[in-house]
Amino acid sequence: MLEIKNLCAGYNGKEIAHDISFTVSGGEIFTLIGRNGSGKSTLLKTLAGQLPPISGGIYIDGTSKEDMSRNDFAKQVSAMLTDRPKTDMMTCREVTETGRYPYTGTFGLLGKADKKAVEEAMRLTDTTELADRFFAEISDGQKQRVMLARAVCREPKILLLDEPTSFLDIHYKLTFLEMLDKLRRERDIAVVMSMHETELAGRISDRVMLIRDGICTGTGAPEGLLDKRTLTEHFGLTEELYDKYM
Amino acid sequence: MKKRLIFSFVLLACLLLLFIAVSIMAGSVDIPIDELIRIFSGTSGDDTASAIVLKIRVPRTLAAAVLGGALALSGYMLQTYFHNPIAGPFVLGISSGARLTVALALIASAGGALKMNSAVMVISAFAGALLSMLAVLLMSSRIRSMSLLVVCGVMIGYICTAITDIVVNFANDSDIVNLHDWAVGTFSGIKSDGLMVCAAVVFAALAAVFMLSKPINAYRLGEGYAVDMGVNIRAVRIAMIVLSSLLSGCVAAFAGPVSFVGIAVPFLVKMLLGTAKPIVMIPACFLGGGVFCIISDMIARTVTAPSELGISTVTAVLGAPVVLIIMLRKNKDRENA
Question: Which domains are delineated in chain A?
């Protein structure tokens, strides 16, 4: 479904992620694991079209991103970023509705199908009761769920999530992951995300990719990669520290 | 929600019609409504009253409505562009830039170097507005803080105003009589041919902005999210800059400096509507700006009659407190967050 070939990504010509290749199929969760500044966000931003790739290709069902219009690409890929959305006087429903943007006409008005998709996404993410509240006034965990509803209501083939669980408490972390699990099963969505919690990443992901200083140091099933030896090396930890806290 | 929107639009439209009528009737010579009806139906025997209404008050009132709408709309777009509720054509120095180039054009025409007409006015104002806007943008790429950006805009405004003042002073002894009035800001200088030109420009820009309401709505969430929605961010940004410069330039060309309308009106309209959706904000700001400027203009020409106040004096008194309220509210939000 999503295929990345020899992708080099970075800002203003400065390469941060080097020669990354992987494929993710429908219903699969693929997680990037690495330290701050390792290139995870750069990679996700490039996949989302926010940064132009320096070289290499991004393909969806065999079609290169470059051969797709912005709108067609947006219909298939939706991203949930770490940037805080600016939501001056927007209700949660309005924020969610922006996810349908690529499907709407000249004035951006939602049709019946759009409204139904929004309702469904809100039900799925348990945000229906928040619909008429102002986005600025709800808690961080609730915001995260609304942003997921926004990403999901587009009914994308590919979902990109940059540290989706970082600001959530344990309760929301786990319910969030459960939602994600349900989504990929029910809708066959390919999920590419970054995550810091290796323990949780191991549980939810079908495959993980270790990324260090912009270089992929290993891709595969979490069981084979998230062991003590690999992780101490990957995160630059001493065995002592690892044993004490992990 | 729907009811509130309908109510708001009906209210704004009624206020606009009401104040257009009041503004035409009130002044140094009061014209009663039955006389007004006779004048419009062409059966009035009073030529003086008829001339006052048709040649002076109607163009002036309509100009205040159209240009007020243009200012509010320009302010709304700048606020959206910079994600800053206190951005506006006046505080960012864009109006002042437009005034400077118009003053230069007027002086060139007095010297015989340029033939002055409404189109030349609009073009020179647009060029000035765009130049100031580019200066602001250049600074905004280096400055992260929004309040600092506004301070920089105010500085650009001061520089442009100072140069304009110098230029106008030099021109004082030449044959430009109106330049001084214009430099203070007034809707009085607009004759019906000028009104036609600015109405054409403003309504065309209004239509263009309205067509952009979908991408503007996407842009509202922030750039990253707009890209995620498939918006061509560069094209939208350029369109917003060009249109807001055109609108505020048009005002600067015909009325001179008019302060705070661009900030106060969008805020008041947003409070009235209870939402900030561009598709309703755009027409509502336009109507609201018209109402605001007609009222301000009426105050400017009646309070100290027969002499007149500058329009900015009035809009500042009415608008600046609103800006203060916005800033205090914003501060409170931050504390709560």
Answer: 2-82+156-245 (3.40.50.300)
Asked if B224 reaches chain A (Cβ–Cβ under 8 Å), the answer is: yes
Distance separating alpha carbons of residues B284 and B265, to the nearest angstrom? 9
Residue pair A100/A110 in contact (Cβ under 8 Å)? The answer is yes
Which residue from A73, A54, A98, A91 is spatially nearest to A160, judged by alpha carbons?
A73
Best residue of A46, A89, A94, A162 to probe chain B, by most B CBs closer than 10 Å: A89
**pLDDT, tens digit, for every residue of B150-175?**
888 999 999 998 998 888 777 765 54
- pLDDT bucket at B335, cuts 50 / 70 / 90: very low
Give the CATH number, domain containing residue B193: 1.10.3470.10
d(CA B156, CA B148): 12
- Residue B182 confidence (pLDDT) above 80: no
DSSP codes of every residue in B287-314: HHHHHHHHHHHHHHHHTTTTS---HHHH
Chain-chain contact of B214 with A106 (C-beta, under 8 angstroms): yes
DSSP H helical ranges for chain A:
40-47, 70-76, 92-97, 112-124, 140-152, 170-187, 198-204, 222-225, 228-234, 239-245
